[in-house]
Amino acid sequence: MKTIVITLLVLAGLYMVYRSYRFLNLDKGLDQKVRNGAVILDVRTESEYRTGHIEGSVNIPLSRLHADTVPLDPSKVYITVCSHGLRSVKAAALLREKGYKQVYNGGAWSDLQQTLAGH
Fold first, then answer.
1. Cα–Cα distance for residue pair 101/112, rounded to 1 Å
2. Strand partners, 80
3. Any idea what the CATH number is for the domain that residue 107 is in?
């Protein structure tokens, strides 16, 4: 019983660290950026994207962003999203390394979708 309690406490602690990480790495004011024409870049796999996505978003899996050339316009504003928020952080950092100046982390696509809907 003691082992189960310790395991549950460790898992709860890890979850809190994960949620804090996501919150701290999430950019603010994304709804305004979308209203101003930002492109929502969904970096999940094609099969994940087919299960649900933000209408109008562009799907380019994170693995494709590692290529030498990326099929994106560097002059546009991009908001990266994925399933839970970790790949979107990586994608935003990767694009910034490649010279894209206006890239923001949108976190989980479903969370951003709710934000955009005003919930």
1. 21
2. 41, 105
3. 3.40.250.10
pTM of the predicted structure, to 2 decimals: 0.78
Angle CA 95–99–102, to nearest 5:
70
Q: How many domains does the chain have?
A: 1
Q: Identify the domain containing residue 24 by its residue range.
A: 2-116
Residuewise pLDDT in 10s, the chain (119 residues) = 888 888 888 877 666 665 655 555 456 788 899 999 999 999 999 999 999 999 999 999 999 999 988 889 999 999 999 999 899 999 999 999 999 999 999 999 999 999 898 75
Strand 78-82 and strand 103-108: the pairing is: parallel
Beta strands in the chain (DSSP E): 39-42, 58-59, 78-82, 103-108
- Alpha carbon distance 75, 23 (integer Å): 27
CB 102 within 8 A of CB 78: yes
